[in-house]
Amino acid sequence: MKREPLFNIPPVIVAVLAVLALVHAVRTYVLTSDQDMEFLLTFAFIPSRYDASAVLGGVLPGGFGAELWTFVTYAVIHADWMHYGVNAVWLLPFGSAVARRFGPVRFLLFFAVTAAAGAAVFLATHAGEEVPVIGASAAISGTMAAAMRFAFQRGGPLSFRRNGDATDYRVPAIPLSGVLRDPRVLAFLVVWFGINILFGLSSLPMPGVGANQVVAWEAHLGGFLAGLLLFSWFDPAPQTPRADDIGATPQ
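Below the sequence we write its predicted structure tokens.
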């Protein structure tokens, strides 16, 4: 039986991490403070950009184009190397699983859509606010939700009966109607929502986020729900699981 190497990271994940690192390196080591501020105002997601009555609503750079591209470009910007590192740690396992299943093109589209969904939910809950949102956490939350749809299935990459090869990522997905009937998925949901509520609604600092920075947990929620609900739009694998796959106990 052919088994995949332990550190066989999909090239698209390596490329995404490289782009995120390059963007932060340029901001940190190349741009001046004024240039970096201009960069943030142009590419970060700022709710007041969509409110003409807000102080910054009519003066932010980028014009109409920025009102569109910032729904995605904010996800390639990070506050510091720790912020980047924490997101990289989460992207590696969940993003790799989803990338192996979707393929590079579908994965990048999925990454962009879940990032945009996270920004949309943040905009709906923080209309007119001038706080910039940055980071790939919403898109990574989307990959976590997507992985949840297939990774726990019998033969999936997080099951005890996996094969250890590419077939682990092609198992039939849990139908959306069956998500809340799988105890492993429910446990995952409880932990994920619990962490976001704990750090988002309390004063506790989330690892990788500075003490003076706000956790955009609404964006995380938007990305997660988009990844969960829109999974089948991007999934090329069979969608009909065997009857004994739903809620099956790992052996």
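The chain has a mean pLDDT of 82.
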